[in-house]
Amino acid sequence: MATTTDFSHLPGRLIVVEGIDGSGKSTQLDLLHKWLRSEGYVTVFTEWNSSPIVRDTTKRGKRKQLLTPMSFSLVHAADFASRTYEQILPALQAGVIVLADRYVYTAFARDAARGVNRKWVRDLYSFAPPPSLALYFHVSLDESIRRIAAARAEIKFYEAGMDLGLSDDLQESFRLFQGRILEEYDKLCDEYDITRIDASQTLVSQQVQVRELVEPLLEGMPRREITKVPTHIQAGYASLAAGGAR
Ligand SMILES: Nc1ncnc2c1ncn2[C@@H]1O[C@H](COP(=O)(O)OP(=O)(O)OP(=O)(O)O)[C@@H](O)[C@H]1O
Ligand SMILES: [Mg+2]
User: Fold this and answer.
1) Amino acid 2: pLDDT
2) Ligand (nearest to CA of 246)
């Protein structure tokens, strides 16, 4: 990522997760988040497309299907800019661990899949601090579709890339569009320092790898003293360690 500012002095850590829809990234980040908090680390969570300032505009544009690839890209960049300056940078300056569910690579992959110029998108996001760790959860299209079908009822218009006119059939369009995004993610892994995780593995084995990758980043990070872990949390972690959850 082209950086216009030097962020290397910031005392915090930035951990980001990436992957196509249904790859399991939110599940893994949530488990990591709970673990870090149980270990006493101070964390801030931020999610793609969640800025209160931009959300209503994005929602309206999506509902009325007004967004061209370029305007789609710009509203997401506006959302990202708002969260960067209000949440991410202040937290990194304060020495906090920031956990981001999707980061600039989501824009790089999706916008390129929509035909937006790759260099233009990278330049647009050049203000973004580079992550300390970027994890890419790689899963096949079939597995992602299976997981989405099991988890929720519908695939949304833009998620399926229906704005591109690839197919009139929502399922088919989703497959074609997400296939393009998968190809873009593959290229991004060569271009940037992104760690690829096989997301077809069980939830527990992925989480073990995630924690191993995160542990070296925790050295020197301030911790709150944990006096007593509530019994129900202890039980949850014991079950996770024993493979009780997938
Ligand atoms: N390793 C796994 N094996 C099987 N199912 C999984 C695994 N990880 C997550 N899932 C399930 O797959 C579904 C999608 O997971 P999750 O919401 O974490 O994906 P996501 O990558 O965040 O998707 P989105 O991009 O749509 O937010 C959920 O129902 C989740 O329980
Ligand atoms: Mg998610």
Assistant:
1) 43
2) 1
Which letter does DSSP use for residue 41 in this model? Answer: B
Q: How crowded is residue 51: how many other Cβ atoms within 10 Å of its Cβ? A: 21
> What is the model's pLDDT at position 244?
52
Q: Do the Cβ atoms of 155 and 36 come closer than 8 Å?
A: no
Residue 235's pLDDT band (cuts 50, 70, 90): confident
The whole-angstrom separation of Cα 23 and Cα 139 is: 6
Residue 129 Ramachandran class (φ > 0 left, ψ -120 to 50 alpha, else beta):
beta
Q: Ligand 1: which of 27, 105, 106 to mutate, judged by most atoms within 8 Å of the beta carbon? A: 27
Distance from residue 91's CA to the centre of ligand 1 (Å): 27
Q: What is the pLDDT of residue 245?
A: 47
| Complete domains list, the chain, with CATH | 13-236 (3.40.50.300)
